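Students often ask why inverse folding is considered easier than folding. One informal answer: many sequences map to the same fold, so there is more than one right answer. In these notes we will look at a single instance of the problem. The structure comes first.
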């Protein structure tokens, strides 16, 4: 409880400081400065199966500052994680909570986005989270399971994974909306975020032997104007979006058969609002689906399938609350099973969640996840994790 009190006090102090920055905005050389502080905490319990039953509490603190000057955007993002691990109890592989991470404070992002208005494009350079624009599903952001934020076929690639939460790397991203309704973007990033031997804190090291990660994505929006932003992020105001992405590491790694292999893959995303209440408001039903495939000779998984639905305003008088059901299924690669002499069922996680918007800055989320075949381990029984997420923002 002492640590919780200290973290809460720290959030309040940071929020007060951020407010002071905003109050002095007019004195800045920038055209505008926006700040935010978000504190998210999970209290989750494994009620059956897995390695052991029990409760775990862990949290995530985000501090963001964005400044604009002559259409240029400068962004800094501080990140802190503390607490236990629910996956250590449930034994899952996919990460039940998308805020669970190594206990550490770090600078997660620090970049500049430079517009190229004549061709409706922009160039972003710096410490960059590729999942803020690549392989992101707006409809899937409701869910706590990590696989609905970015597919495990991509998130478990490389040496320490790609440049995503909680480890980021330097990169450059090009994005264009020259064709109405279509966004084309590509990025090149350092292939090994942080230092594999010590991932605490912020570490940036560029070594030729590590190579780079190259990724590209094409997105199509049903409403053409929805895809016209050249800022960082994925537009959320289109009733329908389809995206296809390709990625590859430049350096080979040893595969399951002992030969050197290139780590590469592809993914496809589709999401749509299929029903809207009250003449097109945000209230209604949305669905999403994702498929991913990778080089099975080097990766544990060969394919991944994820799907789900959300309903905004399901209960009368709760127009902003969200209810969701989703499932995630990574499929083991045959070379991985052959190498380890295994014949195991794939891990399947089904999640049911409800987000209660208490106020504009405070929310509670009830969540339950059933983990079938945790980590494909023969000696682990199916697990059931239930709990609550608290989020407060300034």
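Output (designed amino acids):
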């Amino acid at each position: 409880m002492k640590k919780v009190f200290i973290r809460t006090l720290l959030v309040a102090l940071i929020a007060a400081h951020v407010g002071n920055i905003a109050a002095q905005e007019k004195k800045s050389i920038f055209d505008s400065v926006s700040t935010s502080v978000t504190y998210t905490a999970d209290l989750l319990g494994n009620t059956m199966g897995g390695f052991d039953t029990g409760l775990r509490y862990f949290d995530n603190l985000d501090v963001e500052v964005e400044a604009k000057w002559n259409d240029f955007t400068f962004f800094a993002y501080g990140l802190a994680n503390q607490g236990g691990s629910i996956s250590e109890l449930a034994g899952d592989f996919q990460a039940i909570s998308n805020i669970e991470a190594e206990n550490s404070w770090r600078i997660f992002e620090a970049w500049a986005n430079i517009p190229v208005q004549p061709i409706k494009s922009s160039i972003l350079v710096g410490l960059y989270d590729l999942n803020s624009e690549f392989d992101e599903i707006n409809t899937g952001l409701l869910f706590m399971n990590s696989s609905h934020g970015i597919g495990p076929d991509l998130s478990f690639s490389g040496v320490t994974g790609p440049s995503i939460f909680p480890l980021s790397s330097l990169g450059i991203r090009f994005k264009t909306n020259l064709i109405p309704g279509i966004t084309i973007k590509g990025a090149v990033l350092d292939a090994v975020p942080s230092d594999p031997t010590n991932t605490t804190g912020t570490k940036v090291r560029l070594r030729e032997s590590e190579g780079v990660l190259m990724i590209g994505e094409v997105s199509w929006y049903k409403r053409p104007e929805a895809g016209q932003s050249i800022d960082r992020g994925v537009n959320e105001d289109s009733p329908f979006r389809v995206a296809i992405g390709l990625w590859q590491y430049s350096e080979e790694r040893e595969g399951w058969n002992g030969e050197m292999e290139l780590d590469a893959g592809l993914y496809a995303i589709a999401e749509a609002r299929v029903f809207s209440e009250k003449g097109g408001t945000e209230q209604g039903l949305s669905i999403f689906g994702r498929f991913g495939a990778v080089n099975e000779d080097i990766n544990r998984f060969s394919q991944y399938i994820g799907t789900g639905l959300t309903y905004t305003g399901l209960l009368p008088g709760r127009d902003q609350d969200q209810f969701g059901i989703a499932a995630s299924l990574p499929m083991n690669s045959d070379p991985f099973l052959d190498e380890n002499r295994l014949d195991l069922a794939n891990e399947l996680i089904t999640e049911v969640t409800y987000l209660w918007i208490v106020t504009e800055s405070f929310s509670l989320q009830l969540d339950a996840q059933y983990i079938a075949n945790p980590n494909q381990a023969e000696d682990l029984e199916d697990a059931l994790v239930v709990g609550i997420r608290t989020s407060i923002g300034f």
